[in-house]
Design a protein that fits this description.
- Helices cover 19% and strands 23% of the residues.
- The chain has nine helices and 25 strands.
């Protein structure tokens, strides 16, 4: 698993002169094995936002096209690019003549395919997003043509942790869990994160509310019988994880989503909410870069946001087109049932495959992958956002049998905390409001939690700790 040090700094106030290699060595000695540490050094200078105004095919040049750009201040430029999905109105990361990045040095005026080409629409791999090879990185309206992109956004340190050494630590499959460990290692406090802004790659000025999540249980209690969804009940704040308050997820007059769980052992908890006002647009640049640094490929604002929370909290999420999914049933597949997943592959199911269904029709492979028919598309106007908890053995067997191991299944296989289902939605809404100012909730936070886990209290004797550790630990450090 890849960990971004920029991301960790959201939660831990680490010294500016910290040596990441020394930190990795201490992490190996205390927590889990580190496979490597590397520097992402883009050395961005003079990169700007540019808006595409025209795209013209260059005959006989293969996939090269001449792209006309608005670069702000009434100025224009033309450059040749092989990137796909370039269209008028879209905004891109552009290196004008005189700008530079480590991958290409200083950009100049050149002749490409017989056309004069000024600077370059930078591909993802040139700015630290390794999986976006020869793909343009699109920008949202957070930037205007001609805006200079902050250089500090692009550089980072990445620590690679051996997955096998954290198999028994599901809490470490996200940046927040790793930050908790690093805070202890570095004798630093674990602080509420501040939402990154466009001015830097680190914390902005916001101080969101902390989670109402108790140490052992969840912030929401569903009905004691499988199948019912419920409004929220709050527990005292104990974890400094930045989220919206639960009261904000219960808008007056909004209805609950119908949720039915057929087997509570296979799906201990299922939380969901519906929302509107989430248009198709790119994620903020800071979010795309962070995802790129930890091995993800930016896709769209909504997908990137759910992936960001998975990489942050360790809790996978999925969004359905609410016009096609208006209620949830968690049930077993029928023997021989055919189901087409998001990757376009039709798969044959057996009765031990757990499915997410709507009106008895399967819409997702629970804990593995969503279905193609209910995916969010460009014309989607309303979403049903799910966040669930599944039995790890059930997910593991299905993923292995189908040869379909995903980032989501890798986490569900580790036995996640059921408390994180609602917490992830709280986090989603907090971040989404900064990206989609017109977003509105159209249901209450609905939650089926048949058998809520009770909080656990662990008694620790200082004398025993001293004998195991080999020295006394002062109370204030415990």
């Amino acid at each position: 698993m890849l960990i971004s040090l920029n991301w960790i700094r959201d939660y831990v106030d680490l010294p500016a002169d910290l040596d990441p290699r020394e930190l990795a060595e201490r992490f190996t000695r205390t927590t889990a094995e580190v496979d490597g540490v590397r520097r992402i050094e883009v050395n961005a200078r003079g990169l700007i936002c540019a808006r595409i105004t025209g795209v013209t095919e260059i005959p006989g040049s293969g996939n090269k096209r001449l792209v006309a750009l608005d670069v702000g201040g009434g100025r224009t430029a033309e450059t040749v690019s092989v990137a796909a999905e370039l269209a008028p109105g879209r905004q891109v990361v552009y290196a004008p003549v005189g700008a530079s990045v480590a991958a290409f040095g200083k950009l100049t005026q050149a002749t490409v395919a017989g056309k004069s080409s000024a600077g370059m629409i930078l591909p993802g791999e040139a700015i630290g997003i390794e999986k976006s090879v020869q793909e343009a990185i699109f920008l949202s309206s957070e930037f205007n043509p001609g805006d200079v992109l902050p250089p500090d956004l692009f550089d980072d340190w990445v620590i690679e942790i051996d997955n096998k050494s954290i198999t028994n630590r599901p809490d470490l499959w996200g940046h927040y869990g790793i930050a908790r460990e690093i805070a202890a290692i570095a004798s630093r406090g674990l602080q509420p994160a501040r939402t990154p802004n466009r001015a830097d790659g680190h914390g902005g000025s916001q101080n969101p509310p902390v989670s109402p999540l108790g140490k052992g249980g969840g912030p929401i209690h569903g009905s004691r019988t499988a199948g019912d969804s419920a409004r929220t009940k709050v527990r005292p704040a104990l974890r400094p994880y930045p989220v919206v308050g639960l009261d904000e997820l219960n808008p007056a007059g909004a209805k609950a989503i119908r949720i039915h769980i057929a087997d509570a052992a296979a799906c201990p908890r299922y939380s969901a909410i519906t929302l509107e006002g989430v248009p198709t647009q790119p994620a903020p640049l800071w979010m795309q870069l962070r995802l790129g640094h930890v091995g993800q490929r930016p896709i769209s604002g909504l997908v990137d946001l759910t992936n960001y929370i998975m990489m942050d909290l360790g809790q996978p999420m999925h969004a359905f087109d609410a016009a096609k999914v208006d209620g949830i049933e968690v049930n077993w597949a029928k023997d021989g049932e055919r189901f087409k997943t998001l990757d376009g592959v039709e798969r044959s199911l057996i009765p031990s495959d757990l499915m997410i269904q709507c009106r008895s029709k399967s819409v997702a492979l629970a804990g593995v992958m969503g279905g193609l028919e209910t995916e969010v598309e460009e014309n989607t106007t309303a979403l049903l956002l799910e966040s669930a908890n599944f039995d790890p053995a059930v997910v593991r067997k299905t993923a292995r049998r189908l040869g379909l191991r995903s980032e989501a299944s890798a986490r569900f296989e580790k036995s996640l905390d059921p408390a994180h289902t609602a917490l992830a939605i709280q986090r989603f809404v907090l971040l989404a409001r900064t990206i989609y100012p017109d977003m509105r909730l159209t249901s209450v936070l609905s939650d089926a939690y048949p058998s809520p886990r009770e909080s656990l209290t662990v008694t620790v004797k200082p004398g025993h700790v001293a004998r195991v550790v080999g020295r006394e630990i002062p109370f204030e450090q415990a």
